[in-house]
Structure formats: structure tokens, C-alpha cells
Amino acid sequence: MPSILVVNPNSSSSVSDTLKEVLRPPAEFDYDYFTGPLGGPLQIDSVTTEITSAANCLPTLIPLLDNYDGFLVACYSDHPLVHCLKEHTTKPVLGIFQASVLHSLALGGKFAIVTTVKIWEVLLSEAVRAFLGSETLFAGTFSTGLGVLELHDASPEVVSQRIGEAALKAVQNGATAICLGCAGMAGMEEAISKAVGDKIRVVDGVVAGVEILVGLIRSGHK
Amino acid sequence: MPSILVVNPNSSSSVSDTLKEVLRPPAEFDYDYFTGPLGGPLQIDSVTTEITSAANCLPTLIPLLDNYDGFLVACYSDHPLVHCLKEHTTKPVLGIFQASVLHSLALGGKFAIVTTVKIWEVLLSEAVRAFLGSETLFAGTFSTGLGVLELHDASPEVVSQRIGEAALKAVQNGATAICLGCAGMAGMEEAISKAVGDKIRVVDGVVAGVEILVGLIRSGHK
Amino acid sequence: MPSILVVNPNSSSSVSDTLKEVLRPPAEFDYDYFTGPLGGPLQIDSVTTEITSAANCLPTLIPLLDNYDGFLVACYSDHPLVHCLKEHTTKPVLGIFQASVLHSLALGGKFAIVTTVKIWEVLLSEAVRAFLGSETLFAGTFSTGLGVLELHDASPEVVSQRIGEAALKAVQNGATAICLGCAGMAGMEEAISKAVGDKIRVVDGVVAGVEILVGLIRSGHK
Amino acid sequence: MPSILVVNPNSSSSVSDTLKEVLRPPAEFDYDYFTGPLGGPLQIDSVTTEITSAANCLPTLIPLLDNYDGFLVACYSDHPLVHCLKEHTTKPVLGIFQASVLHSLALGGKFAIVTTVKIWEVLLSEAVRAFLGSETLFAGTFSTGLGVLELHDASPEVVSQRIGEAALKAVQNGATAICLGCAGMAGMEEAISKAVGDKIRVVDGVVAGVEILVGLIRSGHK
Amino acid sequence: MPSILVVNPNSSSSVSDTLKEVLRPPAEFDYDYFTGPLGGPLQIDSVTTEITSAANCLPTLIPLLDNYDGFLVACYSDHPLVHCLKEHTTKPVLGIFQASVLHSLALGGKFAIVTTVKIWEVLLSEAVRAFLGSETLFAGTFSTGLGVLELHDASPEVVSQRIGEAALKAVQNGATAICLGCAGMAGMEEAISKAVGDKIRVVDGVVAGVEILVGLIRSGHK
Amino acid sequence: MPSILVVNPNSSSSVSDTLKEVLRPPAEFDYDYFTGPLGGPLQIDSVTTEITSAANCLPTLIPLLDNYDGFLVACYSDHPLVHCLKEHTTKPVLGIFQASVLHSLALGGKFAIVTTVKIWEVLLSEAVRAFLGSETLFAGTFSTGLGVLELHDASPEVVSQRIGEAALKAVQNGATAICLGCAGMAGMEEAISKAVGDKIRVVDGVVAGVEILVGLIRSGHK
User: To probe the interface with B, which of F119, F122, F128, F134 has the most B CB atoms within 10 Å?
Assistant: First the structure.
């Protein structure tokens, strides 16, 4: 049975646990989960933690490459692990950022990203340019001001309101699809739909990522 | 059970028959097939036939939109039916051109298109710009000089040689993935791999298309 | 005497009548008018009606190509008839959208489009990219919220006010030229000039279109 | 009767004489000719001579602005006079480079420029980017190696051959229209058509320029 | 001892005097100053004065090219002298506009320009595109509405306030570095820092320009 | 006395020794050198080694940030250390790739990169897009096929020939400046000049990098 490894590059197993709860493999597929070994960053909120989390995961991950048919890097960024793993295997490797962009393009119109804190506004614009070669179809990154931890610690009302406000700005800027710009936003689609209506697509990169990998594997890419 | 309608917008049922043979739905999914009603063009090789095939299909297709969960337009072009159907349903609609580009992006590197005749070189460059907003990741369209019918009537050696030559030019131009630029090229992956080696990805937009639609439907887009 | 066919691709002869009133051929030139045959859409307000109007006109239009020296497609969009007709004649074929962009570029600065309803904001941005290869010189599309019919049925005060507001936004966004983004806006230049002053150019694509065709024909293109 | 001033910014009256012979105003229009005052450069083949020719013409030209309805700057470059004159009059001002690009866009496809010497390859690429915002529709500048004077002094066979070779490279690079990239190439259309066939458009910016100005004036721009 | 000529292309020696006061050559380098000869424009605020100032300076400047090792054109624009001088010497020639962009890129993030009057908003956008090939890293030009002379004649409070307001808009538009968009703004860094905080870089193109030239000369470019 | 730390992110002290020999600080400046701690990669030839070298250096480098006034990352790539260090200090941080691009832009024309092995062709194109936002001014990366070690082990004739061939292709592709695309190419300017003549600029990013940092520090950036 083909299987996909979902890689959480930070060292917080609680994030991996959430992913396990959200994802449901299709018949004939299996998903497995990887958490960054202890000693790496607990959350990724800078280029520095992108780099150190990648370097922290690589020695443990490389020996696992033979065991799986596809790999999803579950950090919403142009995470360096995606590029590193492709140097060590020809099997499909995808990041959740790239996956969310691909599903957005498949749905059509312009896409935006709703994310946590301001630093991602610059980094994700760069990531879009690196992935698509231009920002033509990109309606921008809109930060809520809530960090990853605050997303879970703040009251649900505050979280919903902030996410809704960011989504509204995205739509006013022309977005017809909104990507959840943080692995920790899984399950927060409703806050967006309540704010902007259900004609606006909400794309969860984690879900999009495993689905695209399943499709690539079923198409024969190995 | 969710089902996908594969739309062959020309009026040649033999093309639809070939698609039926190539595609295998995953468990819990069903594929159905549609051929352009008699009176439309038998093959699509110009903007004019793109337009007339779309207009020919629309009256019959629109009443079917309620019966399916996703729609694949199986003409390798920026076919107008994709845009028209999106005006009549919110369900996922995808063309095989766009699908091949999405799978190429997911696999990484630069992609090229190997196609039939010269007219597509301009039309597909425009299609890439329309879909991605730039041609940055596009290594070009390379025509074999063989029309759709010749692909099937010419000797297999000639076909393989022409496709191989076009693929080689694509790789020399920087392509790491090559899209089969014609629905009628399904099954011709080997000719490419023989010419350029198996490190170069070959992407069949028909296969990519149904897989992406399955993923979108499984992700909840309706 | 060289003559130009002005093609109204929808099936409303009243639109063609308006064009006849507005246009004045120069000495030694003749203009003739074509209306979409009955059965096609009465107005064009979607990709679907672009496609069906094109397919509706083609069988009647193609036999007329020998009789004229140039063709103007009088629908403010990247109308497919422009591309189709070019496949059937080498004589100059132009759309009023493209014509308005060319006159704007000739006048210099940045151009914007004032149009009817919101759907055109996305479609006309795509049209600009398709025509010029980038949106660098484009200050955007600004919709009035009034459909084609409302433009004629609403009170002149309301129409003027809405057009003026849209034009003002265009100028605040950097436009130095404003294109009338609908064949039905012919004659509404004054509403714009009243709102934004007469330093801002107003470009009517219908007028621009016949003038450019006359110039191409006089330059020997056939 | 509306009239257009054709401005030859260099100080060689022979160039102006050639223009006079080539151009034929339409009924109800008049063309007049201006040559750069003595003391300016005799030919323009560098940024330096662009600048000095512009500065040389300005004092004499500005007092003439009231006497004409449109102005054509007849140097095939992004000549600074075009921009300067626009600061002194709101009447239409156009350069022959820009005019040739506009007629090429009106005709469709990709355009290239066949020109004299190598320096123009860089300058005209910059000019295209400055005018259109991108080089997407531009198939490049192809120099013949013959300077302006050599165009007239060399044997017609040599001139035809060099122009033909440059045109052929342009077509191989995707051009469907070729602009004569030098005011002194007026009348050399045939050399190109002989080399690349008559399906390729040849655009003379001098002719295109007066025709576009006539159209702008007839459209009411003043 | 290598020496750099700082060229003030306008004919106001007071501007050159200010530059002399601001600049301090490093050990082993010498700076010299050039003012446009009498008869040229006293300030540069249009394409016309760019052109006439360049033409006015050239005859006097060219004989000086042998005496210096690098040249800084101290007008904040895509001043034509930069391009002209490069045609007469292989030694490094730089404009203060280009220098400010280079230091901004070296510092990272997005840069904006705070300038005098509105005309520069269009001209400097064009200048960025001409210099970098795109406006991707450019957060825009923000004019204060104060002309060069007003910068010095208005009360310091008004000047500070206007510059501060423009800088604030630049930062809200994403700028992390702000270029002083006028040679006459030398010394006004503080007004910006007071308005937007000292995390935002302020780049003075005059200072940047001589430093880059020193670096190019020390690197062996001659 | 201000000082600059030259960071060699790989763990080969011989590379650092070469840099020490090549660089000469200007009066009133001091340069110091850092080599990646043992355990990191000995050479950087992939995204993986970029990442692991950065992670390897960071813990040792961060405590040193207070001791210096500027930092040069001496690996010819879009090395992640540049971005990481900027998150830990506001002092100027530059990579030698970016430095070579900045000096190329200052010199004018189009630049190309001559480098070691094929993998860099894709990575450096991406790096240019990331740094400038487009590849408009970039004439491409040309690999010699010689790895870093071969550059020093192969016979000087072979090295010169390969570098010369790559440089020639760069010039034929429009380059007027050629960047040495590897820290280990310091001192190989002559091989290029011999192949392409001394009108083509050769830019050494290591030299350019310290010079630009000196200029930024002298301009007050800290």
C-alpha cells in the first residue's frame, strides 16, 4: 500500500497530533507522521528557524526516504526541507504552501493568504514569486497579528474576529480563494466563511498537500 | 459515490473512447464521459474550433452540471469551456492543459510542452501567461509537426522519433518536466523517456486532471 | 473605395444603430455594419456570451470577409471573434478593447477602464495582460455597477454620477487616460471630463478602432 | 485643415526630403516637415546624439507647437523629443518607434525590429520595456551591421541581403511582424518580403506614425 | 591619488556647494565638483530640463573625462548624462538615483522614494523599471508637494512635516528603506527617522554614489 | 576602527586563507575571517549543503555579531546565512552573489555568471529573481563543468579554456559584465579577459562585497 510521510519540521509533537486528527487517507493509501527531533525549534517564525529546523530534521529524515512514496512538508513557508529532500529522492516532495497555491490555481481566480504575524507578509510574497515566477495571481498576505500559540490560547471569539478581518481585507483586495497560512489554522475555515461568505474558497494546504501527493503517486511519479 | 465528467469537446467519439481506456477512477469515485454533439468540429486545431466546439457543447452540458461533482475539459488548450462552465457551477472545473501545468509545478523545475503543430506554440505560450501570470517557469512549446490524426496514422517509428526530437529540444532549453500537449498523446510517455532519459518527468494532463479533481472534491470543494 | 465592417457580435440591432450614428468615415472610406444573427445573446456580459456570440456570428461573417478591407469587433472585451477572424483573413481585424489600449498608449501615461459591472474587472485585467504582456501601464478597471441596459434606462444624472465616481477612482490610481469600457458608453465622454477635468484623456474604443483600421489599410496592410 | 509636423531631429535635410517623398496625407490633412537646425548631429546613433539633437531642436520647435495639430518625431528610438514636446503641448506627439510598435500590436502576433548597428539592440530593448512595460510580445532587435549612411551608399544587393538575413533571424525567433528600425529604411519593405515571404508584416514607423496621428486628431484629441 | 568628479548638471552653484559640505572622501581619494555652465536650467524638474541640462554640460564635461577616475551625476532622476558619459569613457559613471537603489538593495527589503513634486512619481517609476527591469522591490514614489526651492525656503517645521508624512505613506506601503529623492534633500534624514522610527533605513543617493564609485575604483574598474 | 567579518560558511579553512590573501582593507578599516566550525560541509554544492552550512555556523556566529560593523557571506549563492544574520543584527549583511550583482548593475549593461557545475544554473536564476524581482538584466548562468576542487586541481590551461568558453557564451548571449560565480574563482579574471576582451567587465563578488560593506558603513548604516 503506497504511503505518504507528513513531516512537521518543528519539534512540537502537538502540531503533528493535530495533523493526524485532521487528515484521512483515501482507500489504498496510508499516511505516517514525522516530528522534528528534540533540539530543533518548537515553532517556525523566521528564516533562522526555517533553516535550523531543516538542518535538525535532515539526518533523521534521509534514512526514511526509502520507506515512503511521497513527502509533505507541513510548514506554511517556502521551507528549505522541500528543496533539500528533492536532492535526495526523486519521489514527489511538496510543501503545504505550494500545495495551497496549486489548489487555488486549480479553483481559479486570485488567491490570498491569511496568516499569523507580520514577518510572513514579506516572506510569503517572496515565496509566491519563487514558486510561480510572478505575483500576478496573488492578492497578498494578510496577517492577523496572532502568533501560532495565540491562535490556540486566545479566546475563539478573538481568533475568529481577527481571521475574519484579515479575510475581508483579502477579498476587498480581489481574492476569490483564501489559503490558511499556518499549519495551526487547520479547522478554521468556518471563521473565514462566516466573514466573507461561502462563495470565497478556503484552501487548507495540509489537506491540499496530501491530496496532490496521492494524485502524483497515482499518476505514476516515483 | 462522487463522480467526474470527462468532457471531450470535439465531436470524435474515438477520442473519448481512448480516454475511457486510459483512466481508472480511484475507489469511491466514478468517471463518466461526454463527447461534443454531432455538428461540432471533429478536431480542435485553431481558435475558431475552440470557440465552435465550446458553443456546440454548452447547451447539452449545462443540464448535466447537477449530476457530477467535477468536470475535466479534455482539450489541451486554454479551452473556453473551462471558463464558461465556471460561470454555471461552483463545482471544480479544470482543463487538461491547466492540470498538466499544476502537476509540473508540484514536481518542481521548469516545464515544457511537446505538441502537434506550430500554431500551438503561440497559443500555448499565451495560455501559460494567462494561467500563471508569467512564463518564468515555462521552457517553451515544441511542436512535432504531426497533426492529431497523423499521430495515429503515421508509423510508430516516425511518431516516436518526432516526439523524441521535440522532447530533446525541450530539455536542452531547460525543461525538467514535459507535458504531453495533446489529448491524443496519451500513452506516448515512453517515446519521450527513451529520448531524454527517465530523470525527466512526463506529465499527461488527462491523468493529472482527474487526479486533481478527485483531490479537490475530497478536500470539500463543491 | 476601401470599406470597413463594424461587427456588433451581439444580436441587438439597437447597439449597431448607435454605432452608425456615432461613426463618420473619412473621405474615401466607407463603413458598413453587421449585427449578430437572431438567436445569439442580446448582450455580452460573461465568457459564455462572448463564446456563444462568436460562434453565432462566424457562419454569417466568414462569407463577408472578401467584401471588406478591415474589421472592427465592437464588443469591449478580449472578444474571441477577433482571434477567429484572423484565422480566416489576413486583412486587419481589431477589437474595440485593443483599439482603446492602442490609442491610450499613443497618448502616453497610464490608462484605466471605466466599465459596467464587476465581472469585467477580472476579465479586462486578463485582457490587458494578454494584449500587452503585462499590466505595467494599466491603472485598473473601475466598474460603475450599472449594466449595459441600465446605462440607457437609468436617469442621466445617476449614470453621470456613477461614471464620474469610477473615473475619479481611476485618476486617483494614476490614470491619465480613461477608456470607455463598453460599446454602449459611446457619447459619455463628458460625464468623465466633468468629474476629472479635461487634462485626462477619454478614449472611445469604437472611434479609435475605425481610425486605426483606416490607418492600417492606408499603410498597405491587406 | 488640420496639419501634422514631421520632425526630423537630426540636421540632415536629405532625410527630411526622403520623408516628404514617402508620405501622402489623406484628404483634409496637411503634413509639414522640420529638420534639426544646423549645429546639431547629422545622424543619431547614440544616446549622446539623441540628447544633443533634442536640445538642438527644442528652442526652434517650441514656438511652432501652436501651428500644428500633431507631431511625429522621425527618429527610430525612444527619442527624448517625444517626452519633451509632451511637456509643452497637450496635442498628440508620437515617435516613429512607438508608432511601429502600435501598428504591430494592432496586426497581432510578435514583432521584431531590423535595424542598422549593434548599439541599437540594447537601446531598443529598453525602449520596448519603457513603452509596453515588458518584452513579452517582442521578438528582438536584429542589426544588419550597416550604418545609416551605408544603407544608402552600399550596393543595393548588399543592403537587400543584409536586411533579408536580419529579417530571417527575426522570423526564426518568432516574429510575425518586422519593424523597419531606421527612418532611412523607408522603402526597403521588399527586401524583407523577398527574404521571409509576404505572410510576415512589414511595418514602417514613419507611415504608421502619421496615420496614427491622423486617427488621434480625427478622434478629437487636441 | 584617485579622484571622483561630482557633477551637478544644473547651473546652480549653490547646489554644488551643499554637496561639497556633505561629502567627505575616504583616505587616498579626492572629490572634485562640477556645476552646469551658465545658460543651462537652474533646476531640473522635467524631462525637458533633464535633456537641456545634459546637452549644456556635455561639451565642457567630455574634455574632463581623462582627469578623473569616476563620475557621479548628482540629479535624482534617470538623468541622460549617465548614459551619455558612458559612451565617452569606460570609467565608472553613476547617477545618485541608481546609487540610492543599489544601497537600498544591499540593505534588503523594499525601498521607496520620497521626493518633491508629483511629476517625479511617474518618471521615477519608469526609472526603476529601466534600472532593475521590474518594480517588484519598489514600494513607490511619494511626493511632498514641495519643490526644490521650497524645500529650502519653507519653514523647517513644514518641510519636516511634509517629508514625514510622505515617508509614513511609504512605510505603510511596505517600504523598509526610504531614498531621499532629490539632491537638495541631503541632511533631511532626521525628519524621516522622526516620523517612521529608526528601523527604517534612510538612503542618501549622493553619499551612496561616491561610496559605490570608490568601491568600484578600488575593485579595479577603469 | 570599523571592521568587517568575512564569513566562509563551509568548513574548509583553505578557502578562507585564499580570501585573506586576495582582500586588502582600505585605510581605517579592518577585515577579519570566519570559517564554518568543523562538522559542517567542506564545500557547498547543493541546497542541502547551503542549509547545513548555515545551521552549522549560526551558533558560533551570533555571539560575534556585536564585534563587527558588517558581514560578508562568502558563498556564491542566495546563501541562507545572509537572511538569518539580518534577523539577528541591523548591521549591514551582504552575500558575495548579491554584491556581484550590485557592482554589475552599477557598471551598467547586462550581467552573466560563469560558474562551476550545472546545478547552479537553476539556483542562480532563482537567486537573481529573488534579489532583483526579474531576470530582465540577467544574461544567464554559464557552467564550466569543473567543480570547486577541479578548479584548483585541473591544469591551468584546462581551467582557463573552460572558463573562457563559458564567458564567450555569456557574451554571445548579451552580457557586458561577467560575475565570477564561485568564491574559488578569485584571481581568474584574466582567463575571462583573454577570451572575451577587456571591454567586458569581470566582477569578483568577494572584492565587490567588502567594498560595498565599507561604503554602507561609511554612509552611516549600523
Answer: F122
